[in-house]
Amino acid sequence: MKQIDFGNESWKQELMQAYSFRFTETPEFVQEADHITTSANQEHREGFDNISLLSPETYTAGAKAKLRCAFDGLGCPEIIIVEKTEKCEDGAVRYGACFEVVLWKNGVNVWRHYMDEADHRCYWHKRLGLTMPVAEKNIHELEVEIIKNYIRFDVDGVSIKVRAEDLPERFHLGITACEGIVRLYDMQIDQNEDESTEDQVC
Q1: Max alpha carbon distance in the chain (Å)?
Q2: Domain spanning 2-201: which CATH class is it, in words?
Q3: Residue 134 has pLDDT above 70, yes or no
Q4: With 50 as the cut, is the pLDDT of residue 47 above it?
Q5: How do the residues of the chain divide into helix, strand and coil, expressed in percent and rounded to 5?
Q6: What is the rounded CA–CA span in Å between residue 128 and residue 25?
Q7: pLDDT digits (tens, 9 = 90+) for 71-82
């Protein structure tokens, strides 16, 4: 089990900083006493930092990630499932194809991102849009489990399983913080045996 505390800089030895091929900007997290946070960024097309952290190692079905996080406004903390990464000429690690489980003030979205390998063009569509109130500034625990052909997420007492037959066999697990102020407190990643559950399926 990997335990990551964002209240000190030890997380830098546990996770690699990464960015989507959608962006050229490479901002960094701000270290605070008990968390890391994004900032407003007028040089970024979204107006805020967009940063990911990924596990250097890969996982398989049965893996689970749990994140304690908070956000302001339209901030989006995400748990992401990434098939592969690439080291770019500017020294940054980037990725394209992935799944995102996105927490925001109006609920949870699950997005599937694709990338054209020839030109790194990215495109995406929404697999699930769950509407529910999620309080700004409060700390929430978002948990994602990868099951064969499914992604299950839990947040604020809600548990839903989303069909995803195109999950990669092996993948990096990590987080993205984007579209507003996002605070990350700690994260846990665990590799378990793949077990099906009887949660609601979408």
Answers
A1: 46
A2: mainly beta
A3: yes
A4: yes
A5: 0, 55, 45
A6: 28
A7: 999 999 999 999
